[in-house]
Amino acid sequence: MSESAGRQEIWVEKYRPERLEDVVGHENIISRIESYVEQNDLPHLLFAGPAGVGKTATSVSIAKEVYGDDWRENFLELNASDERGIDVVRDRIKNFARASFGGYDYRIIFLDEADALTSDAQSALRRTMEQFSNNTRFILSCNYSSQIIDPIQSRCAVFRFSQLSDDAVAAQVRNIAEREGIEYTDDGVDALVYAADGDMRRAINSLQAAAATGERVEEDVVYGITATARPEEIEEMVTSAITGDFVAARSVLDEMLTERGLAGGDIIDQLHRSVWEFELEEEAAVRLMDRVGEADYRIAEGANEKVQLEALLASVALEN
User: What exactly does this protein do (predicted)?
Assistant: First the structure.
């Protein structure tokens, strides 16, 4: 395949792991799942963790390990938040589980975003899991395991996927860039890792978007296409506020929000990630974190982003 043809593909899919050993960043989890597969003793599984860390990739890899080339016929992927409702999902599960198949002891049903189901829907799902436990294994994926009812959790082996380490994301970004023949700088990779914040999907998509510009993948390009503020900009804004210079802090904020169109929620997220990297005194850092939490809540409830962020900076400036 030519380089230009390769760039027409979505790299997240092109470089999706084919086997469990290809899943990066979760060695302990993968080794336990590999033992289940080797012993042909797969329980129901519950994968919990943030987006883009490998939950779906692991589920598909399990099917490919168990069924080989027949994995598509024996693996059903459903999205639990589908607007068609749990009744349709249950019908599809029942039809899939009842269908005749040969050569395998069980089929696998992967239910993504299971925490989007109501408690009643989860209760219905629990009964369905019981009904077909003899010939079907369920893999449930969610962001928050606390949203899954206890009767389902107790029927599953629970695996908690954490955010991927910076080293794991950087290694995969470099690997893909080299395989695609993309020029990149170390600063560019660092920027991709920072913007991704442990989300491999976001890192790979950002790499492809940066490569599509035709330029070398470097820091300026990455921050431009990911709509991410530089860490030093966030630090400058906070430092100005802490020293009492509200006007300077507001100027940096205004440039990010108005001229570059960054989202207020993203700036809050970056502030939260960076508070402990600013070498602030502990008391100042704690006060800043308190204000970040309050602004985040208000923005999430629908308050004006710019007003809340300016209020955050004003509060910090007044305290110093």
Answer: Part of the RFC clamp loader complex which loads the PCNA sliding clamp onto DNA.
**Structural domains in the chain?**
26-160 (3.40.50.300), 166-226 (1.10.8.60), 231-318 (1.20.272.10)
Q: What pTM was computed for the model?
A: 0.83
Cβ count within 10 A of residue 240: 21
Does 293 appear as a known binding residue? Answer: no
Q: Evaluate whether 56 touches 112 at the Cβ level (below 8 Å).
A: yes
Structure tokens given for 130: 């019981």
Instruction: Find out whether 52 is annotated in a ligand binding site.
Output: yes
Whether 224 has a binding-site annotation, put simply, is no
Sole residue written with tokens 């006007």: 247
Whether 51 has a binding-site annotation, put simply, is yes
How many of the other CB atoms lie within 10 Å of CB of 69?
7
Q: Write down how long the chain is.
A: 320
At 42-99, the pLDDT tens digits run: 999 999 999 999 999 999 999 999 998 889 889 999 887 764 566 767 778 888 877 7
Both tokens assigned to 299:
């923005």
Phi, psi dihedrals of residue 44, rounded to the nearest 5°? -65, 145
C-alpha distance from residue 265 to each of 232, 258, 261, 296 (Å)? 18, 14, 12, 7
What CA–CA distance (Å, rounded) separates 252 from 234?
Answer: 8
